[in-house]
Design a protein that fits this description.
about 100 residues, two-stranded parallel ribbon, 2 strands, mainly alpha, Rossmann fold
């Protein structure tokens, strides 16, 4: 996975969280979806099997009341991202 791809995913995640905060006093709900690998023609040759788009859509509709929807294939990366983000934020706040 290229650094640019990873950076763009992190930027989008940050933007979604900030948008949720900005719209928190309105009737607009912002849901972040972290799907992992999706089964498409582009991912047919991937070693891991992704979930079909129909299953992704069902997960989103079923869990639309949550702030963040993390699907099976993305859980570890999401947990690590949250841990690393908090660690870096703490270091910045401490001045380290």
């Amino acid at each position: 996975m290229s650094p640019g791809y990873s950076a763009s995913k992190a930027a989008l995640s940050s933007w979604v969280r900030n948008l949720r905060l900005q719209l928190s006093e309105t009737k607009v709900t912002v849901v972040e979806v972290i799907p992992g690998l999706i089964k498409t023609t582009m991912t047919l040759k991937a070693k891991k099997v992704g979930i079909p788009p129909e299953e992704l859509a069902l997960e989103i509709v079923t869990n639309s009341d949550k702030e963040t929807i993390v699907l099976k294939g993305a859980r570890l990366a999401w947990i690590l991202n949250k841990f690393i983000s908090r660690f870096v934020q703490n270091k910045i706040m401490q001045g380290d």
